[in-house]
Amino acid sequence: MFGPEGPTLRELTVQALSSVEHGYDLLAPKFDHTPFRTPDAVLDSVAEALAPLGPFTDGLDLCCGTGAGTHLLTGLCRRGVTGVDFSAGMLDVARRRVPAADGPRVAWVRGDARALPFTAAFDLVVSFGAFGHFLPRELPGLFGQVRSVLRPGGRFAFPVFAPPGPAHPGFWTLLGFDAVMRLRNALWRPPFVMYYRTFRLSAVLRELERAGLAVELGVLPGFGRRADGSPRARLVVARRADAAPLGGQPAAGSVNS
């Protein structure tokens, strides 16, 4: 599953018994050789969908890991790109793997997405594969933080993939993984928050709107459709509205659909 350059079973076990921060510090040197790293096909598809919405001046890669999304932003932003992550190990790898170029300046910041150390300084915030590390009750605070670092009219974008149905083996794999993680966190400290089935699209859209973000939901082409005809991959683009609404249903728009 991980190949010869990826982590061993022992290394993964040690990681899983650590805190999220320390676990990723340990995994960082081999992270890009695991399935956890966002595939290039996803990154390219998101970049293609976002390009017509620009140009952007400054971008933020939220929970940047080893910098795959940060590198994507260097092709979309004119002045500056920042990657933020709370794992020093992941940031060390990112600094080496996202070279400084003639384009926008690149900065790396160690910080917690739930308490971002920025003002309203970004036109575009992206995130890839990080939301399993946040519990549902943390989403309002997380999205509030994102809104606070966006300039008026700025956008927060991330891909969402449809979960497999009960007839697919992947459904039971993810269900089993989450069950094991819940058992591990009940018996072992510190906790390692990583769940695959807590990030439900309907709840996410609702919380984005409550945070004062106007939501558009588009389709990422190239990933096919499920048996019921719904797309396997969508792109959520949430724009900072002038004022935070009290609630209601999010608006479903279209981004590169």
TrEMBL record:
Residues 60-154 form the Methyltransferase domain. One of its GO terms (molecular function) is methyltransferase activity. One of its GO terms (biological process) is methylation. Transmembrane segments: none annotated. It comes from the Bacteria. Its EC number is 2.1.-.-. Signal peptide: none annotated. PANTHER family: METHYLTRANSFERASE. This is Class I SAM-dependent methyltransferase. It comes from Streptomyces olivaceoviridis (Streptomyces corchorusii).
